[in-house]
Amino acid sequence: MAEPPYIPLRPIPLKDRSAIVFLQYGQLDVIDGAFVLVDQHGVRVQIPVGGLACLMLEPGTRVSHAAVMLCAQVGCLLIWVGEGGVRLYSAGQPGGARADRLLFQARTALDETARLNVVREMYRRLVGERAPARRSVDQLRGIEGVRVRELYKRLASLHGVPWRARRYEVQQWDAADIPNRCLSAATACLYGLSEAAILAAGYAPAIGFLHRGKPQSFVYDIADIYKFETVAPVAFATAAQVAKGRGEGPPERQVRIACREAFRSSKLLERIIPDIEAILRAGGLAPPDDAEDAPEAVPPAITRTQASGDDGHRG
Question: Closest Cα to residue 44, out of 26, 65, 67, 21?
Fold first, then answer.
């Protein structure tokens, strides 16, 4: 019997996808054309990978080559994290096919005037008002830090949650109090979503503006803009529920489920990539052309015959 004709994959635009799915204790593979998680008993759970922004792979997961290739084709980011998503060990790169956007990001970050303009735009979006005049990047970072601490106190008071300070140790996760654990789990969800958007759009997570020197500096920059309208209230609300003995399962799991709903209700994925473009253009440098044939570009490993999905998709 002849094989059916091959139908090229058409990635779903990132803004139309669900945000994040956490997976653990299973083998990720492609079986009978479906992306599945197979547990130790051989039970398959099909994962609609083409409709997801990213998969968070917790300890106990293994991934086949076919599974990684399918994620690259459909533009779903794979992120290897610690238990509960509290540490990031590695990440795939479904985007990045356009080198011109990465170079534009780097030029803007290296130009001190353009960098300050970008930071001021980030501050405006975070605070809702223009940044104070004649302030350096370090000074604006200090102002933001004070505001963040005050917002944590305000949210804790609003939900009736005891709060001392933002304090936790990655190596001693269970030693942290419930509010800090909830906040860390919620922030990890937002980081995963932000990194998926950054990579899908063809930018580099490490080239930051307000934050620098970390593998996820730009992720922190972008995620901080949305933190206090999405995951921070969710974290404190969940901590309050846990304190009252409500909810099912560990606090981290409750937070992840609540964050997923918050991302969906706020339509966050529809906003991140356009916001990134606007933030970088605020630097004042000439943005890259929209042409696909940038002279420094390297052809994608998976040939695309028809434009679909987002610019960063390799297939």
Answer: 26
Report the 10 Å Cβ neighbour count for 213.
7
Is the separation of the CB atoms in 258 and 192 below 8 Å? no
Structure tokens at 45: 């759970």
Q: pLDDT band at 87, cuts 50/70/90? A: low
Structure-block tokens of residue 301? 């490993």
- What's the distance, Cα to Cα, between the start and end of the chain in Å? 28
169-186 mean pLDDT: 79
Q: What is the 3-state secondary structure (H, E, C) of 53-115?
A: EEEEECCCEEECHHHHHHHHHHCCEEEEECHHHCCEEEECCCCCCCHHHHHHHHHHHHCHHHH
Indicate left, alpha or beta for 12 from its phi (over 0: left) and psi (-120 to 50: alpha): beta
Cα torsion for 143, 149, 154, 155, to the nearest 10°?
A: 120
| pTM of the model as a whole | 0.75
Task: Return phi, psi of residue 304, to 5°.
Answer: -110, 120
Question: Beta-carbon neighbour count of residue 133 at 10 Å?
Answer: 6
Instruction: Give counts: helices (H), strands (E), the chain.
Output: 9, 8
Band the pLDDT of 273: cuts 50, 70, 90. confident
302 pLDDT above the threshold of 50: no
- H or E element that contains 31: strand 26-31
Average pLDDT, rounded, for the chain: 84
- 144 forms beta bridges with none
